[in-house]
């Protein structure tokens, strides 16, 4: 379904009639990039920088053009949360703070991580 694998700003140029393929490509690409860093020993400050500068900006163009399904955005947020707490395959860590609290602005006591659903709505409203 690709046109020679051509991409523009991280999206496939030709994705056929199925937006499901496009949405799953965005999700898989973001999660794949995040999982590359899961096995590395990165402290919380490094994880915050990595999330804000590398992982969360990946789906920006897709989010600004399309309203992604809520389940896809929740899966991306779930992977981000697992990465933040240092969870690995077969090992689960305790999530001490809710995602709602982590996604608040730093001035409000959060980390400033993006809530993907709200961000999708904001970019589409532009």
From TrEMBL:
- Name-wise, this protein is Uncharacterized protein
Instruction: Say which species the protein is native to.
Output: Rhododendron simsii (Sims's rhododendron)
């Amino acid at each position: 379904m690709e046109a020679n694998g051509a991409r523009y700003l991280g999206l496939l140029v030709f994705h056929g009639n199925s937006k499901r393929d496009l949405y799953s490509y965005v999700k898989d690409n973001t999660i794949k990039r995040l999982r590359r860093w899961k096995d590395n020993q990165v402290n919380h400050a490094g994880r915050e920088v990595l999330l804000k500068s590398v992982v969360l900006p990946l789906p920006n163009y897709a989010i600004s053009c399309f309203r992604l399904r809520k389940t896809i955005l929740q899966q991306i947020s779930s992977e981000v949360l697992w990465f933040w707490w240092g969870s690995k395959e077969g090992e689960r860590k305790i999530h001490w703070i809710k995602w709602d609290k982590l996604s608040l602005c730093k001035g409000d006591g959060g980390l400033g991580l993006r809530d993907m659903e709200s961000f999708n709505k904001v970019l589409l409203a532009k």
